[in-house]
Write a structure and sequence with these properties.
The complex is a heterodimer.
Chain A: H1 19-52, E1 55-58, E2 61-65, H2 69-76, H3 80-114, H4 120-128, H5 135-145, H6 152-159, H7 176-188, H8 190-201, H9 205-213, H10 218-229, H11 231-246, H12 250-256, H13 269-278, H14 288-319
Antiparallel strand pairs in A: 1-2
Helix pairs in contact in A: 1-14, 2-3, 2-14, 3-7, 3-8, 3-11, 4-8, 5-12, 8-11, 9-10, 11-14, 13-14
Chain B: H1 14-45, H2 49-54, H3 66-74, H4 77-108, H5 114-122, H6 133-142, H7 149-174, H8 178-185, H9 190-198, H10 203-219, H11 222-227, H12 236-246, H13 251-271, H14 273-280
The chains are: A mainly alpha, B mainly alpha.
Chain lengths: 320, 287
């Protein structure tokens, strides 16, 4: 790792070890611990995770080369093929609804907070509060609230004269996934709010002032000036929401169990992956080969999206 | 929708007043939506289970503080807390020490391979490390680290490094090179320069790195679920699932347990919400 000193060219004091070599050794010593940790416990496992999908597995003992057999089983053999498709649509639906509900509300709150009305700082702090809570705490808390008989949600509905709307939110296949998505949004909505708010506050006042003098209404200002200038923030939130939606695990696991009850109505790729790797999909033993194949599919989806997003961001920065 | 900045020049038209009122209503409604469930959790934790069922929205007749004592004693909460604390502090220390050293080398020295190593670390920033759980599980088994806190500490430290190195290297690069040169002329060694001259200056970045990592590590559920099986080694989120299985019908204790689990993080948040907001959104907001 020898090279040319840039900031230190001037020095030439004699030492027992030539400075160039000592410097190289220091650099190596500084880098070694981090490189070792990162290579051993992130880079290498990620690469082997991909490779594992190409082998046969007996329990967690690796067998011979399998080619694409694991993938063919994942996409073509019951129950994997069916579970996979169902889980994928649940992840996709989670992404779409989270974009609309959570991030839509985030944008609304950011716009309202940017107006700087009464208590904006306090609201900001309150909205972000659930983001620091463990998803296990959030999941269990809402599971109690949503209990069909004793939960606060149905009792509140009854109190408001809307008892007819009360239902087993988490037990009904029609409402279970949407309910989970709403609980997730409750926990996360402060995050896009803060990101959008920071973006809006970075817009120079002159732009808005000029538009206002030209007679633009607040709706037009939002659509024509604020929203286009928020593109980088929106882009980041879309990427993070996508990664979050396709990595979804804790909340479905804690609230609906490892199979995504009821009847797989809240099954997602993360749960399916976990079951294939450590439990069992329907009946049978863990299937590490298929589990690894699911990981590769999820990895590809996430990499593709965040890659495209990053590319878009860099392009915009180059233009600006 | 209200205008994004104060509409000072528009006077007090009724439309503006109505918009401001609507804005306040929406903001207050959401604040309630956040605070009420948390308040209701605390309220229920001080009742008897029958009280929660029969009069859910009333104040507790007599606050039952003994719920907390019972949870603390019966449910190994003290053990879970201690484990979470050990794992979080140890992983954070590893991230800060190894991350600062690497960022110092990458940010303050120019050498062949600098960019390549930086990119190598950076490649880990978006990688969902959980997808590597199968090889990690096998690796930990082979290293005989399954069912030890080390399995968690090593994975948390390693996966926290990319963001830490990204943030810290950027910070090191903004400091003027004269600082190092002056210290070097004064006879300071390479490590001495980092510790005495630069470290005090990168403290704000260290704070951001800490907040950015500490909350996800403290809250993580996935890795303990896979790596830890002995009850005495479980961290708080995993311990909570054990506790919920044991006390299913005793809602008073469940709410007390949830409140206990949420309390440390919420208390910290109330004291330093600005730092938390800044640190946790560091990946998504520049500057």
């Amino acid at each position: 790792m020898a090279g040319v000193a840039v900031g230190t060219r001037a020095r030439s004091a004699p030492r027992r070890v030539p400075y160039r070599i000592a410097r190289g050794l220091w650099i190596a010593a500084f880098l070694a611990p981090a490189l070792l940790l990162f290579s051993a416990f992130v880079a290498y496992p990620i690469m082997t995770a991909m490779a594992y999908s190409l082998y046969r597995w007996d329990g967690i003992v690796r067998g011979g080369w399998a080619g694409t057999a694991n993938f063919r089983r994942l996409f073509g053999q019951y129950p994997y093929s069916e579970r996979m498709l169902v889980a994928f649509w649940h992840n996709a639906w989670t992404f779409v609804l989270t974009m609309i509900i959570q991030n839509g509300l985030g944008m609304l709150f950011a716009t309202l907070l940017a107006a700087g009305g009464w208590g904006a700082r306090v609201y900001r702090a309150i909205f972000f509060m659930p983001v620091v809570l463990s998803l296990v705490v959030v999941g269990f808390l809402w599971e109690l609230f949503l209990n069909p008989v004793w939960g606060a949600v149905n009792k509140l509905l009854a109190l408001a004269g809307l008892g007819a709307l009360a239902r087993p939110w988490l037990g009904d296949p029609h409402t279970a996934l949407v309910t989970l998505i709403l609980v997730n949004a409750w926990r996360w909505v402060g995050f896009p709010t803060i990101v959008f708010l920071a973006g809006i506050q970075a817009i120079p006042d002159e732009y808005l002032e000029a538009a206002r003098l030209d007679g633009a209404g607040s709706g037009a200002i939002f659509r024509r000036i604020v929203l286009p200038l928020l593109a980088p923030q929106v882009n980041i939130i879309v990427i993070l929401t996508f990664i979050g939606a396709f990595n979804w695990f804790e909340l479905p696991y804690v609230m609906q169990g490892v199979t995504g009850e009821p009847y797989h109505a809240t099954d997602v790729l993360g749960l399916l992956f976990y079951r294939a790797a450590f439990g069992a999909v329907d009946t049978g033993n863990p299937d590490v080969g298929v589990g690894s194949a699911i990981a590769v599919v999820m990895f590809a989806l996430i990499l593709l999206t965040s890659g495209l997003g990053a590319l878009y961001l860099r392009q915009r920065e180059a233009e600006a | 929708m209200t205008p994004p900045t104060g509409a000072a020049g528009e006077g007090r038209r009724p439309g503006v007043v109505a918009a401001a009122a609507l804005a306040q209503t929406l903001l207050a409604a959401n604040a309630l939506l956040v605070l009420l469930p948390i308040g209701f959790m605390v309220l229920s934790s001080l009742k008897a289970t029958r009280e929660i069922f029969q009069r859910p929205f009333a104040l507790p007749v007599v606050p039952r503080w003994q719920n907390y004592a019972e949870v603390w004693g019966a449910a190994h909460f003290a053990v879970y807390f201690r484990n979470s604390l050990i794992v979080t502090v140890a992983s954070m220390a590893l991230i800060l020490v190894t991350g600062t050293l690497a960022a110092y080398a990458l940010g303050r020295y120019r050498f062949r391979g600098n960019d390549l190593i930086f990119l190598f670390f950076l490649s880990g920033i978006m990688v969902p490390i959980r997808l590597a759980i199968i090889p990690l599980f096998i690796m930990m088994r082979d290293l005989r680290l399954l069912d030890t806190v080390w399995s968690l500490i090593l994975v948390y430290a390693a996966s926290g490094l990319p963001s830490a190195i990204f943030i810290l290297t950027g910070f090191f690069r903004t400091l003027p090179p004269e600082l190092d040169n002056a210290a070097r002329i004064d006879g300071a060694g390479e490590l001495g320069i980092l510790i005495t001259v630069l470290l005090p200056l990168v403290r704000p970045a260290l704070a951001i790195v800490t907040v950015y990592n500490i909350i996800p590590i403290w809250n993580d559920f996935f890795f303990p679920l896979v790596f830890i099986h002995q009850d005495r080694l479980k961290t708080l989120p995993l311990g909570l699932t054990v506790f919920f299985g044991e006390f299913q019908t005793n809602w008073a204790l469940l709410f007390a347990g949830l409140t206990l689990a949420a309390a440390p993080v919420l208390a910290l948040y109330v004291v330093m919400s600005q730092q938390f907001i800044k640190g946790l959104t560091a990946g998504a907001i520049k500057g």
